[in-house]
Amino acid sequence: MENQTLVKEFLLLGFSNLPELQLTLFCVFLSLYVSTLTGNVLIIILTRVDPQLEMPMYFFLSCLSFLEICYTSVTIPKMLINFLAKTNTISFFECAIQLYFFISLGSIECSLLAVMAYDRYVAVCNPLGYPIVMNKAVCLRLVVTSWLSGFFNSTIHTVMTFRLPFCSSKQIQQFFCDIPPLLKLACIDTLANEVVLFTVGGFYGMGCFVLTLISYIHIILAILKIRSSISRHKTFSTCTSHLIVVILFFGTSFFMYLRPTSKHSLDWESLVPVFYAVVTPTLNPIIYSLRNKEVKGALQKIISRKVTLYRKSQLHKVRFG
User: Fold this and answer.
1) Which helix (H) or strand (E) holds 91?
2) Which pLDDT tens digit goes with each residue over 65-86?
3) How far is Cα 19 from Cα 6, in angstroms, rounded to an integer?
4) Domain holding 83: CATH number?
5) What letters, b where the CB count within 10 A reaches 16 and e where it falls short, cover 277-309?
6) Which residues of the chain have pLDDT under 50?
7) Number of folded domains in the chain?
């Protein structure tokens, strides 16, 4: 504690060990970010303008898309700036804000994925009561609860993390402020923080995962009771997109957070977060649009409508000069 100093800023190392690839990485991540924004905005528009998508499942999907836009916007813009900047610094306050919203939105996604699994469970296991059980008021309450619980969970971790004295180094081995690399910079024992991360964070994340798992166990058991193979495939196809997203998100998140900090590899710390912070939000709209007939149908309608309007405008120009 004798060498403790007041840290005013941190240095985000990120991919600074690859100086010759900074411009290439900038282009890659910019493309991923633009794809994320475009895909998720398109999902939101489709679920709002197409009457056939006025269902709880697509309401939750639009909420997830909005969440992914916010989630990626917390980290990627700063990372893109750092790729082009000579210094990769971030102030203490900015780091705290970034961590708070990153953990908040990640926690909200855990909850929302569990809510979406429950929605599929009700749709498959109780189809007649589905409109009553999953009415608009219930759907709204589930989403609001997900957001409030996510912010509460993040508050605990952010306060615990930034109460630590940082004195050994200012270098964060990551492209954004995250809990594991920040704990490495503390000049006191972080056992209490790790216990909180494992208990509170683990309970929250594992709780959402277990609820999701229970929902899918009931869904699979219900599908197995269906005699027609065509009906079984059709029923399960309504869940596959969500299941893929669940595996991608929970798999990479648990790999990163539910391990002792001392065992973290710096190489993995730089690589694994790319999947759940950048790649997964980019893939989500692609997964849902390619594997969902209703979404593809809505997209085709909009494209056909635009093409028809364009042809009419061109024909009008030809006729009337």
Assistant:
1) strand 89-91
2) 999 999 999 999 988 888 887 6
3) 30
4) 1.20.1070.10
5) bbebbbbbbebbbeebebbeebbeeeeeeeeee
6) 1-5, 262-264, 266
7) 1
